Structure formats: structure tokens, C-alpha cells
């Protein structure tokens, strides 16, 4: 693999039609804000997974590379970050950032994380740590990723995952509001329609064990956001980018969207209100 040079690996690679949230500039900005707001929990998880200078780290479904750039700092120039995504435009943004920061040890792979046997054919037992954040919930075959990871990780290597379980029932506006809940169900339904699963973290630990991994850490980060707080911008940015897409794709009507935005606007000015955010589960497993 050549550093910071895009290398198409599979024919699966495509853009807008694949990733349900899209790959436009609005989604890039949302992912950047999201990365910032979750970076403390993320860095703690990387420490648990033993990320160190000199290691080879895989970032699965890296998007525009916000986490990959942090990982590149942590492993340093003697290490490698292999960043995989199915979106060429996200990988191009990662390339531009890596070049600007002279991170020659960031390698990009265009391809499907469900086919690591093809996308990472030359990396058998090379990888020290693999990381996947908010990727498994979009996949139709998460077990295929785990099979691939069992091949590319070295013995003793680790996988760190942050993802959802119980998203649909957890995410709630307080006081409760039917217009809000309707949109949450539509979000989950739209991901399921593309093969995703907002409950995926309920299944991953068992799948990893089945493929020869030991669970070292399993926990949940449950947060709330109050109007006016920085964290309020996390759901807020998601509504801005994704709710209109739910109308375009027929999961909700214009009237549903308008009722939702009215409820959100009311909540945004209610200093006594809050939103229960989707619980982000974290998992670290070790390859035996
Ligand atoms: C919510 S974004 C998360 C991006 C990044 N992990 C982060 O935490 O900022 C999901 C990413 O997974 C990628 N993705 C979804 N399905 C994929 C697949 N089958 N193979 C490779 N990438 C995929 C999307 O293109 C997108 O960049």
C-alpha cells in the first residue's frame, strides 16, 4: 500500500447510494462535530485497546477521517493507520488532510469492510488494533467483518467498537413528544431498509466470541443533552442533515417533519427540558 494514495480494492465501492446518511459536505461537518463531542470517550477506549506508537491500526468505515487523523498522531510516523471506507469522496478528504499535515503513514483503502479478505489481502495477521465507530449499525453482514478481522489481526491484537443498542427506545425528548418519537422510529426504519441495525451492539459481543475473540471490556456511555449545551448540537446537527432525507425517501411526510421541527424548536428554548441521547456502547475484544 502506498501512503496517502487511494487504492481501489473492490467493486463494491460507491458513494451516495450506499451510506444512508450521505457523503456530502453537510455530513462531513456533522461527523466532525460528532467526533469532537465524543473524542474523550473515544480516546479512553483507544487506551483500553492499547493503541501505541509504532502500531498498525485499522480504522474501519473511517468516513472523512476525523478519528484516523487522531490515530495517526498516536501511532506516530513509525506506525501505520489503514483507513477503509466505501466512499471515495470521504477518502479524498482524508487524503487532503493527511497531505496537509504530512501524515505519510495514513493509508487509504477504498472498499467494503465486509470483504476484508479482498480489501486487505496483504495484511494477514499484521494488524495490532482495529477500530470501528458507528459503522456496524449500517452493515447488513456484521459477522463478515468479524471473520475478516479474525484473519488480519495478529494474535493478541484487539478490536475496539463504539456503536448502538436500543437506539429506538432510548432516544427520547423530555417531556415526551409523539412528533419526536415518530421521527426516531423512522430513522431506525430507514437504516434497517438499507440492511443496517440500530440494535447491532446487542449481537456483536457474541459474534466476536464465536470467532475466537475474548471480551475484555463492555460498557455504555449514556448521556443527556440540555438546550444551550454543546452536546445539544449533536442531535441538532443530525436533524438538520437527516430529517429532510427521511422525507425525500418517504419514511415521513412533510407534515411529520414540520411537527418534529416545531417540537425541537420548542425544546431548544426550554431550559428545563432535555433529550436522552442514544446510548453509545463500547466494546474491546482480544484475538486469542
Ligand atoms: C456514521 S459514519 C462514521 C464515520 C467514522 N467511523 C466516524 O466515527 O466518524 C459511517 C461510515 O461507514 C462507512 N461505511 C458504511 N458501510 C460501509 C461498508 N460496507 N464498507 C466500508 N465503509 C462503509 C460510510 O461510508 C461512512 O463513512
Walk me through the structure.
- The protein has 288 residues and is of the alpha/beta class.
- It has one domain: Vaccinia Virus protein VP39 (Rossmann fold).
- Helices cover 42% and strands 22% of the residues.
- It contains 10 helices and 11 strands.
- The protein has helices at residues 25-48, 66-75, 88-100, 116-119, 142-152, 167-170, 178-193, 204-210, 233-248, 254-268, and strands at residues 7-8, 56-60, 80-85, 106-110, 127-133, 153-164, 172-174, 213-221, 224-225, 274-276, 280-287.
- The strands form 2 sheets. The chain has an 8-stranded mixed β-sheet with strand order 1-4-3-2-5-6-11-8, with helices on both faces.
- Helix 3 links the parallel strand 3 and strand 4 (106-110).
- Helix 1 (25-48) crosses helix 9 and helix 7 packs across helix 10 (254-268).
- The radius of gyration is 19 Å and the shape is globular.
- It binds S-adenosylmethionine.
- The site of S-adenosylmethionine has 22 residues, from helix 1, helix 2 and strand 3.
- S-adenosylmethionine binds at residues 19, 21, 31, 35, 61-63, 66-67, 84-87, 90, 112-114, 133-135, 138-139.
Amino acid at each position: 500500500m502506498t501512503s496517502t494514495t487511494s487504492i481501489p480494492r473492490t467493486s463494491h465501492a460507491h458513494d451516495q447510494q450506499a451510506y444512508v446518511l450521505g457523503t456530502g459536505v453537510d455530513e462531513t461537518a456533522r461527523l466532525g462535530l460528532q467526533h469532537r463531542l465524543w473524542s474523550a470517550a473515544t480516546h479512553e477506549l483507544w487506551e483500553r485497546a492499547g493503541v501505541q506508537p509504532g502500531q498498525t491500526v485499522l480504522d474501519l468505515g473511517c468516513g472523512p477521517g476525523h478519528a484516523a487523523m487522531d490515530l495517526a498522531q498516536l501511532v506516530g510516523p513509525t506506525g501505520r493507520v489503514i483507513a477503509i471506507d466505501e466512499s471515495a469522496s470521504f477518502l479524498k478528504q482524508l487524503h487532503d488532510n493527511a497531505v496537509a499535515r504530512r501524515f505519510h503513514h495514513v493509508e487509504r483503502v477504498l472498499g467494503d469492510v465486509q470483504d476484508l479478505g479482498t480489501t486487505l489481502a496483504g495484511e494477514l495477521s499484521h494488524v495490532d488494533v482495529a477500530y470501528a465507530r458507528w459503522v456496524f449499525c449500517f452493515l447488513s453482514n456484521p459477522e463478515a467483518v468479524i471473520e475478516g478481522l479474525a484473519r488480519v489481526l495478529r494474535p493478541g491484537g484487539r478490536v475496539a467498537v463504539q456503536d448502538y443498542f436500543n437506539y429506538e427506545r432510548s432516544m427520547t425528548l423530555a417531556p415526551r413528544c409523539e412528533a419526536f418519537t415518530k421521527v426516531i422510529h423512522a430513522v431506525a426504519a430507514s437504516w434497517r431498509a438499507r440492511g443496517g441495525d440500530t440494535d447491532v451492539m446487542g449481537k456483536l459481543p457474541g459474534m466476536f466470541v464465536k470467532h475466537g475473540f475474548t471480551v475484555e471490556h463492555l460498557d455504555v456511555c449514556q448521556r443527556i443533552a440540555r438546550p444551550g449545551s454543546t452536546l445539544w448540537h449533536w442531535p441538532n446537527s443530525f436533524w438538520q442533515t437527516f430529517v429532510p432525507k427521511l422525507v425525500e425517501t418517504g419514511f415521513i411526510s412533510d407534515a411529520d417533519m414540520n411537527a418534529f421541527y416545531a417540537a425541537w424548536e420548542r425544546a431548544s428554548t426550554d431550559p428545563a427540558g432535555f433529550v436522552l441521547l442514544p446510548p453509545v456502547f463500547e466494546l474491546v475484544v482480544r484475538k486469542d
